Automatic annotation (TrEMBL), chain A:
UniProt xrefs under Pfam families: COX6B (PF02297)
Main location as per UniProt: mitochondrion
Compartment annotation: Mitochondrion
Stated name of the protein: Cytochrome oxidase c subunit VIb
GO CC annotations, alphabetized: mitochondrion; respiratory chain complex IV
Keywords assigned by UniProt, alphabetized: Disulfide bond, Mitochondrion
UniProtKB/TrEMBL annotation, chain B:
Name the record gives this protein: Cytochrome c oxidase subunit 2
Lineage of origin: Eukaryota, Sar, Stramenopiles, Ochrophyta, Bacillariophyta
Source organism of this protein record: Nitzschia inconspicua
Sequence ranges assigned to domain Cytochrome oxidase subunit II copper A binding in this UniProt record: 108-255
Functional note: Component of the cytochrome c oxidase, the last enzyme in the mitochondrial electron transport chain which drives oxidative phosphorylation. The respiratory chain contains 3 multisubunit complexes succinate dehydrogenase (complex II, CII), ubiquinol-cytochrome c oxidoreductase (cytochrome b-c1 complex, complex III, CIII) and cytochrome c oxidase (complex IV, CIV), that cooperate to transfer electrons derived from NADH and succinate to molecular oxygen, creating an electrochemical gradient over the inner membrane that drives transmembrane transport and the ATP synthase.
Domain of life: Eukaryota
Annotated GO MF terms: copper ion binding; cytochrome-c oxidase activity
Length: 101, 258
């Protein structure tokens, strides 16, 4: 209980410049935007699509991690980690059904 | 919002509770308003029908047909008792549909929370800050695996005031006044992620990612339970959420990840 009270009532402590900057960055983080192609409640295909968009980007840029970072983040944001691990594993073993690099 | 206020609101079930828990989203406010509207109409119907039944039984019988003769095959009566139920239904349908369509109003989400049902616990993943974290040379992510706090551990001193069968070993922190996207899925059998205060109840199906958008209007501790029978420990996989002001949430993310 005292811990909860602390979280609610504690003033945010004085921040150093670095923390201030980090806070600003965290504030501006936005998750995967909505996609008009997937208006339904089930977002499984949305996740699959974002993952393949990242792969497509990797293919087109010759595996340039920096350029495809946004796509990677967007797929990571909405896909359960289990699924991503499965697909990463499938790609390594060459049995992946989606975009092949 | 003042601190005292959150403890006066009912965000967890009470003993012998009759009413709904206090709303924290517009969805739940709408649901409660609709529920009240329904009860009002129902009361009128019950009184009216009861009175009609009583009047018929006490006023008419097989020997007393004087009065009933006067409205035998009455057109006016037929029109009234056909249109009245139709109008009543219309009166119920219009707010019902308004609510239904306002519930899947879509907004641009700021944070995605992945909620995964297991036999028998819930786990949560918030991966929106992953890229930022790796840029900052930290591979930490926001992940929660929430098991039930057993009665033995609750009876310990530092857990005084905790709810039996509702508390988890980790509480999921969420920001208020932020558009959240909840993605509910399961890894084994069907579960259902339900929080009465949010007006949210979504099935967790393996292979599906069910999306709900919520906008939490206030801070507080919110409790829920699995709502789809999923096995022996179905009743022992509660949900405990701590909703804090968004600024404090951001601060939490900074201190947790970097
Ligand atoms: Cu269950």
């Amino acid at each position: 209980m005292s811990k909860i009270n602390k979280i609610f009532s504690d003033k945010i402590p004085e921040l150093s410049e670095k923390e201030e900057d980090l806070l600003h960055q965290v504030k501006n983080v936005r998750t995967t935007p909505r996609d008009q192609r997937f208006p339904s409640q089930n977002q499984a295909l949305h996740c699959w699509n974002r993952y393949n968009e990242w792969l497509l980007c990797m293919k087109q840029t010759g595996s340039d991690d920096d350029k495809c970072q946004v796509y990677r983040q967007w797929s990571v944001s909405i896909c359960p980690n289990d699924w991503l691990e499965n697909w990463d594993e499938a790609r390594e073993e060459g049995r992946f059904m989606g975009v092949k690099i | 919002m003042r601190i005292e206020k959150i403890f006066f609101l009912c965000d967890a079930p009470e003993f012998a509770q009759l009413r709904l828990q206090d709303p924290s989203t517009t969805t739940m406010e709408g649901l409660i308003a609709f529920n009240k509207h329904l009860l009002f109409v129902m009361t009128i119907i019950v009184v009216l029908v009861g009175w009609l039944l009583f009047a018929t039984i006490s006023n008419y019988d097989e020997f007393n047909t004087q009065k009933s003769q006067s409205f035998f095959h009455s057109n006016a009566l037929e029109i009234v008792w056909t249109s009245l139920p139709a109008l009543t239904l219309l009166n119920l349908a219009s707010p019902s549909f308004t609510l239904l369509y306002s519930m899947d109003e879509i907004s641009t989400p700021e944070i995605s929370v992945k909620i995964i049902g297991h036999q028998w616990y819930w786990s949560y993943e918030i991966s929106d800050f992953d890229t930022m974290a790796t840029c900052m040379d930290s591979d930490k992510t926001l992940k929660y695996t929430c098991y039930l706090l057993t009665e033995e551990s609750i009876s310990q001193k530092n857990y005084l005031g905790f709810f039996r069968l509702l508390e988890t070993n980790k509480r999921v922190l969420l920001p208020s006044n932020t558009h959240l996207r909840l993605l509910v899925t399961s890894v084994d059998v069907l579960h259902s992620w339900a929080i009465p205060s949010f007006g949210v109840k979504v099935d967790a199906c393996p292979g599906r990612l069910n999306q709900v958008n919520v906008f939490l209007k206030r801070i507080g501790m919110f409790f829920g339970q699995c709502s789809e029978i999923c096995g022996v420990n179905h009743g022992f996989m509660p949900i405990a959420l701590l909703v804090v002001p968004s600024i404090q949430y951001h601060y939490f993310v900074v201190s947790k990840l970097f």
